[in-house]
Hints:
This protein has one domain (14-204). It has 8 helices and no strands. It starts with 13 loop residues before the first helix and ends with a helix. It has 205 residues and is an all-alpha fold. The chain is globular, with a radius of gyration of 16 Å.
Amino acid sequence: MNDPTCLCKTEMSPGKKRFAAVFSNLVQPPILDIPVLLLINMAADGGAGYAVSASVSLLFATVLPIAVVLYFSKKTGNDDGDIVRREDRIFPLAVAGLIYLAGSVALIAADAPDVTVAMMVSCLVCTAAVIPITMHWKISLHAMGIMCAAVALTWTFGPAGLLSLSVYPVAMWCRYVLGKHTPMQMAGGTVLGAVLTSAVFFLVA
């Protein structure tokens, strides 16, 4: 895909690079989903108890996807918990999609709150959408994940949920200065994440 923007080539101090790498890891979608799922499960009123819905959602949206990322990160020669090459992301994304599908089924079977099911389905839909895109273009999964979290929190808590977007500019700066994404790739992830997650929450939650 033709991208008029480019990767960052600026040299950084070791301290800034270390900060960018650590912060980037902390806002990976599966890690970012941990506080999000704990909060929306706590606020939701569903048939399943908090312990059940929180445990099931955390297993399928965070624990298993994190394991997938770490495994394929090492397998593809990356020690920073990231899968850098676009073509190396396809199979891990497909595995993650199957995990999210299983998680959606498990949450529905457990009578979890609608908002929790919507969050898991959003992960599934977003992952399914980025697989064909990633075959040609390295869209930002970090941007998509942050928008997914923001939509879920705003749906659950109202305008207060928008405070979660405070991590967005810092996260995008980190991804850019680390040379992981172009501005257009980050913008694409932002728009796609916001639109798809909003649609899922409107239909499911």
